[in-house]
Write a structure and sequence with these properties.
The complex is a heterodimer of chains A (239) and B (306).
Chain A (H helix, E strand, L loop, with lengths): L1 E8 L9 E8 L4 E5 L6 H8 L7 E6 L2 E2 L8 H6 L1 E5 L10 H11 L4 H14 L15 H13 L5 E5 L7 H16 L3 E6 L2 H7 L1 E7 L2 E9 L16
Parallel strand pairs in A: 3-8, 3-9, 6-7, 7-8
Antiparallel strand pairs in A: 1-2, 1-4, 4-5, 9-10
Helix pairs in contact in A: 3-4, 3-5, 4-5, 5-6
Chain B lengths: L2 H14 L1 H32 L8 E5 L17 H13 L4 E7 L1 H11 L17 E6 L5 H8 L5 E5 L1 H44 L1 H10 L3 H40 L13 H30 L3
Antiparallel strand pairs in B: 1-3, 1-4, 2-3
Classes of the chains: A alpha/beta (239), B alpha+beta (306).
Subunit structure (chain B): Forms a membrane-associated complex with FtsE.
Keywords (chain B): Cell cycle, Cell division, Cell membrane, Membrane, Transmembrane, Transmembrane helix
Family (chain B): Belongs to the ABC-4 integral membrane protein family. FtsX subfamily.
Chain lengths: 239, 306
C-alpha cells in the first residue's frame, strides 16, 4: 500500500537530511506505529505519503502510484484516498461537529442524501452519536480528536495517517483513541500512527517502525516502543 | 462541489470580510468611474464633430425664409437660380475645391435631430429654420480664406463658416480631460489590482485552516479557488455598477442639467447623454469582470498552491 525505496529527504541542501535512505513497505490493511523522538523524521514520512513534500531522492509509492511521476492535477485524487489526523485536531471552529464532518463530503461534491447517510454513520462509528450539533469548543480533547478521526474516515479512505494523535490527550483518553484507530483498521483501512507515546505502543504490540535522526533503525512486526528485539534489514522486513 | 454549498460558503465569506469587500468595491468603483469618464469624453468629441467635421473644411449656408438678418438674404430664401450660380462658381474654383456636397434643408434637419438627440432644444427647432448648404472639401485647407472672400455676402449666401475653428478649442480641452481621466484610471486600476491581490492573500490567510483541510481531503484546485474568484468578481461587479451609476448621475445632473439651466452656449454643441452612458456600461462591466478573474486567478496560482 505504501512503499518507500531508499528515500532521502532534505529540506535544505546544507542541513542534515530529515529522512536518510529509508526503505520500508506497509501492506494493505496493516496497522503500524512510526516511533522516534521529535525531529526523527516521523512527520516528514507522513508528508511524503500525502505528497505535501516531494522526496529529494528515492521513490515513494502509494496505492501503486509513483509520487515522483504524479502530475499535479492527480494529487487531489491521491489525497482523496488518504485520511489524515493531527495532534491539534484542526477542526473548523465555526462549524458544528456534523458540519465539520459533512464539509469533507461537500467539498468532494458528494450528493446530499449520501452526506445525510454517511455523517451520522461515521459519528456513530467514532462514538459521537448525538453530539452532531455541538460546536468544537464545547467538546473535550478526546471528543475533538474523535471528530477529527470521523472527518478523516468519512470519505472511506484506504489509508489513515495519524500524526501524534494522542499528543494532547491524557493516557486514558489516548487509549480510547487508539482503540478507535484499531477499530477503523479492522474495517480494512491501512493505519499508520506516528507517535512518541510509549504506553500505547507497548500496550498494542503491533508493527513498530523506529526512526532516529532520519534513519530507519528498527522495523519489527510486533514490538513495543523501546525494546529493540531485532534490527532492521535493508529490505525493510524483519530479521 | 454542490452549488448550494458553494453559494453558502461564498455568502459566508463575503459577510466575514465586509471591510475587505467594501474596499475592493470602492477602489474598483473609482477606477472604473475614471475609465468611464475618459470614454465619455472621447464620445463627446465624436458627438460634437457631427456628420461633416471630418469630411469638409468649409460650409456655405444658404438663406432661409427666416434669415432676414443677413443683407445678402434680403430677398428671402435662396432661389433656384442663386443656388445654381453658387454651385457653378464653386465648381469653377477647382482644383482648390476638391469636392462639393449639397445638403438640403430636410437632410440638415435629419442630421440635426440625430446629433442633438440629447439636447432639450431639439423640440424647439423648426424644420424650415434649417438652412440648406454646400459643404466643400478643399485640396489645401489652409486656403480657406479664398473661399470665404469669394462667397461671403454673395446673393443667397447667409454665412460661410469653418466649423473647425469653433470646435477645435473645445476638442483640445476635451482631449486633455480624456487623457487625464484615462491616466487616472490606469493609476486606479493598478491600485485595484494590488488591492485585490492583497485582499485575496489576506482572506486566504484567514481561511488557511479551511483551505488546508480542503487540500488535505483531496479537493480539486477549482473547488478551492472558486469561492475566492467568485467573491472577487461579485465585489468588482458591484463597484462597476456603482461607477455606472455615478457616470449616469454626472451626465444626468451635470452635463444635461447644465443645458437645461440654459446659460446659453450649450446649445451650440451637441453633448453626450444618458444613452452614451448605457453604451459604455457593458464595456465597464466586462472590464471589471476580466480584471477580477485575471487578478484573482494569477494571485491564487501564486499564493494558494494546491
Amino acid at each position: 500500500m505504501i512503499r518507500l525505496d531508499a528515500v532521502t529527504m532534505r529540506y535544505d541542501e546544507q542541513g542534515a537530511p530529515a529522512l536518510d535512505d529509508v526503505t520500508l513497505q506497509v501492506e494493505r490493511g496493516e496497522f503500524g506505529f512510526v516511533v522516534g523522538a521529535s525531529g526523527s523524521g516521523k512527520s516528514t514520512l507522513m508528508r511524503l505519503v500525502i505528497h505535501e513534500k516531494v522526496a529529494t531522492s528515492g521513490s515513494v509509492l502509494v496505492a501503486g502510484q509513483d509520487l515522483r511521476a504524479l502530475p499535479e492535477r492527480k494529487v487531489p485524487a491521491l489525497r482523496r484516498g488518504i485520511g489524515v489526523v493531527f495532534q491539534d485536531f484542526r477542526l473548523l471552529e465555526n462549524k458544528t461537529v456534523h458540519q465539520n464532518v459533512a464539509f469533507v463530503l461537500q467539498v468532494l461534491g458528494k450528493r446530499r442524501h449520501h452526506i445525510k447517510q454517511m455523517v451520522p454513520e461515521t459519528l456513530d462509528l467514532v462514538g459521537l452519536d448525538g453530539k452532531g450539533d455541538r460546536m468544537p469548543h464545547e467538546l473535550s480533547g478526546g471528543e475533538q480528536q474523535r471528530v477529527a478521526i470521523a472527518r478523516a474516515v468519512v470519505k472511506k479512505p484506504a489509508i489513515l495517517l495519524a500524526d501524534e494523535p494522542t499528543g494532547n490527550l491524557d493516557p486514558e483518553t489516548s487509549a480510547e483513541i487508539v482503540r478507535l484507530l484499531e477499530r477503523i483498521n479492522k474495517t480494512g483501512t491501512t493505519v499508520l500512527v506516528a507517535t512518541h507515546d510509549h504506553s500505547i505502543v507497548d500496550r498494542l504490540q503491533r508493527r513498530v517502525i523506529e526512526l532516529e535522526n532520519g534513519k530507519l533503525v528498527r522495523d519489527e512486526a510486533v514490538g513495543g516502543y523501546g525494546a529493540r528485539t531485532s534490527r532492521v534489514t535493508t529490505t525493510g522486513g524483519v530479521d | 462541489m454542490r452549488l448550494q454549498f458553494m453559494l453558502s460558503e461564498i455568502v459566508h465569506g463575503l459577510r466575514r470580510n465586509v471591510a475587505m469587500v467594501v474596499s475592493v468595491v470602492l477602489v474598483s468603483m473609482v477606477s472604473l468611474f475614471f475609465l468611464g469618464s475618459g470614454l465619455l469624453a472621447h464620445r463627446q468629441v465624436d458627438t460634437a464633430k457631427g456628420y461633416w467635421y471630418d469630411k469638409v473644411q468649409v460650409s456655405i449656408f444658404l438663406c432661409t425664409a427666416q434669415s432676414t438678418d443677413a443683407p445678402s438674404c434680403a430677398d428671402g430664401a435662396v432661389s433656384a437660380g442663386q443656388r445654381d450660380q453658387i454651385r457653378s462658381d464653386l465648381a469653377s474654383l477647382e482644383p482648390l475645391v476638391d469636392r462639393i456636397y449639397y445638403e438640403s434643408s430636410d437632410q440638415a434637419y435629419t442630421r440635426f435631430q440625430d446629433q442633438f438627440r440629447n439636447s432639450p432644444y431639439l423640440g424647439s427647432v423648426d424644420r424650415a429654420a434649417m438652412p440648406e448648404s454646400f459643404r466643400v472639401k478643399l485640396s489645401d485647407p489652409t486656403r480657406f480664406g479664398e473661399i470665404v472672400s469669394a462667397f461671403d455676402g454673395a446673393p443667397g449666401v447667409e454665412a460661410v463658416s469653418d466649423q473647425r475653428k469653433v470646435l477645435d478649442t473645445f476638442f483640445n480641452l476635451l482631449n486633455v480631460l480624456s487623457i487625464g481621466s484615462v491616466a487616472l484610471a490606469v493609476v486606479m486600476l493598478v491600485c485595484s489590482i494590488l488591492l485585490i491581490t492583497t485582499t485575496i492573500r489576506q482572506v486566504a490567510f484567514s481561511r488557511r485552516r479551511q483551505v488546508g483541510i480542503m487540500r488535505l481531503v483531496g479537493a480539486s484546485a477549482t473547488v478551492i479557488h472558486l469561492p475566492f474568484v467568485v467573491e472577487t468578481v461579485i465585489a468588482t461587479m458591484i463597484g462597476a455598477v456603482l461607477a455606472i451609476g455615478l457616470l449616469w448621475a454626472m451626465v444626468h445632473y451635470g452635463v444635461s442639467g447644465l443645458l437645461e439651466n440654459g446659460s446659453g452656449g450649450g446649445g451650440l454643441i451637441s453633448l453626450v447623454g444618458e444613452a452614451d452612458v448605457w453604451a459604455i456600461a457593458p464595456w465597464l462591466l466586462v472590464g471589471a469582470f476580466v480584471l477580477a478573474v485575471v487578478t484573482s486567478f494569477v494571485t491564487l496560482r501564486r499564493y494558494l498552491r494546491v
